[in-house]
């Protein structure tokens, strides 16, 4: 990618708050990297905490969502997956009645998460039976109804719950060790005698969901943990002091940061919603030294950016990598707020949600950026036959 001395092409305009800002786009080559039954009967009666109003849930389709995580370790208790873990398998299933590798998508040592809604027509006491190999539990509206814990072969447990008519949020946790798979959810509605499979007609899950998966081993919290393996920061090395420098009410979704020679920080933000809330850039003062959050001030210097994921300060100018190009923020009047947005390098962008451009670096007159490939539901690339190794306008 060439530095900013490249000659400009015709501009298109963008307005900023407080005055006009010009948006210019220019064409240069851009180097880029790709980012790719034994039965035990122990009935227990509980009461679900709350019904879910239909207006409060997204559009639904029949079935439940099955997500499976490849943990590759023997478990004897439920796994709390580390934050942000992407499943290996993510699909819709008609009912909860699974017995094979084909059903789960994995063979051994995995964690299963089943989500959706249970829609009952009649209020009353409902009995549930969960059968599994190994441990499993059923929660409705956040209340545990049946618990079938521990490492074991095919085993059943029962529980009861008082439900009102309408939708109830459903969650099933399950883990599998080895030698066979099984997960079955049955119920006995009020006025009936026998347990039967919970039917597809009363199960639903969110419709039109982008299902993203990734390969590889997934990790549980508090099990074989090592530094840097995805857990939130709990404490710091005793030689360091952790200070909260975020001013009250300022909660940017930071996507990139850099430092200016005068000690100030510049950050780019995602915006909050890729369609309705665009990205911004802020200058942060007071974030270094011995100050506190009360000493930190921030100034918005750019807005209406297309999901910026990288920012760099070079020779007095702030540069931002947007989804479709590299933009220089030009300040003409000395108030440090961008008056021009000069997009002097572009790369292919087809509007896909996963086509990020992040990790902006600068060295010896060249900018470097990592681009994310377009993805389709399920986690596959949009076009495997033609991976992008370079970008150009």
Features:
single chain; 393 residues; mainly beta; Jelly Rolls; 2 domains; eight-stranded antiparallel beta sheet; seven-stranded mixed beta sheet; 1 helix; 29 strands; 1% helix; elongated; disordered N terminus; disordered C terminus
The tally of helices reads 1
This entry's quaternary arrangement is single chain
> What top-tier CATH class of the largest domain fits best?
Mainly Beta
Helical fraction equals under 10%
Indicate how many domains the architecture comprises.
Answer: 2
Shape: elongated
What is the element layout, followed by pairings?
Blueprint lengths: L10 E6 L2 E7 L4 E6 L2 E2 L5 E3 L12 E3 L1 E7 L18 E5 L3 E2 L2 H4 L5 E11 L3 E10 L2 E5 L2 E6 L6 E9 L2 E11 L5 E7 L7 E2 L5 E4 L47 E6 L5 E5 L9 E7 L11 E9 L4 E5 L2 E5 L3 E6 L9 E7 L10 E7 L2 E7 L17 E2 L2
Parallel strand pairs: 2-26, 3-28, 4-14, 5-14
Antiparallel strand pairs: 1-2, 3-29, 6-18, 7-8, 7-10, 9-16, 10-15, 10-18, 11-14, 11-16, 12-13, 12-15, 16-17, 19-20, 20-21, 21-22, 23-24, 24-25, 25-26, 27-28
3D architecture notes:
The chain is mainly β and 393 residues long. The chain has 2 domains: 11-33 and 244-373; 38-206, Jelly Rolls (Sandwich), CATH 2.60.120. It has one helix at residues 101-104; strands at 11-16, 19-25, 30-35, 38-39, 45-47, 60-62, 64-70, 89-93, 97-98, 110-120, 124-133, 136-140, 143-148, 155-163, 166-176, 182-188, 196-197, 203-206, 254-259, 265-269, 279-285, 297-305, 310-314, 317-321, 325-330, 340-346, 357-363, 366-372, 390-391.
